[in-house]
Design a protein that fits this description.
Blueprint: E1 2-5, E2 10-14, H1 25-29, H2 36-47, H3 57-65, E3 69-77, E4 80-89, E5 97-102, E6 106-107, H4 112-129, E7 135-141
Parallel strand pairs: 5-7
Antiparallel strand pairs: 1-2, 2-3, 3-4, 4-6
Length: 153
Amino acid sequence: MKIEQIATSKKIVRCDLESPIPGSAADLRSPASKSTLLNRWDAFVASCPESGIMQSSTWAALKKRQGLQVCHLIILEGQEIIGGAIAYASAHKSGLGILWVPEGPVLSWADSQNAEQCFNLLLSEFERLAPEYSCMAVRLEPRIRIRRENSTD
């Protein structure tokens, strides 16, 4: 796990899946096989309606077992998780791929100023890390619900 100070009150943590998870599907769901930080991440993802399963550590473990590279960044303010994202990369025929963040980043979009700051922090860090994963670009796909003024939603 690598920690970098990004802003005075925020830090970004690169959280790798610590070890390969053994064979059975039950092992993928076992909280005992995950670190405390990953358990906290999964709780954070579950609490954010604008996120989905593809940002969970269980999905990341499955994708890693399928041969994708996984890059997981978490933004902390103090000890509190305030955002983050899991990106996936696979080899491309040309040798360069895309670092893809489906259903993410996971942020509190209601606080637009903080969301914008965290979004930019994550994008910058993924752009910096992309060459490490043989990727030429980063694709973020946040699930943001857009409310229309005359909508009943």
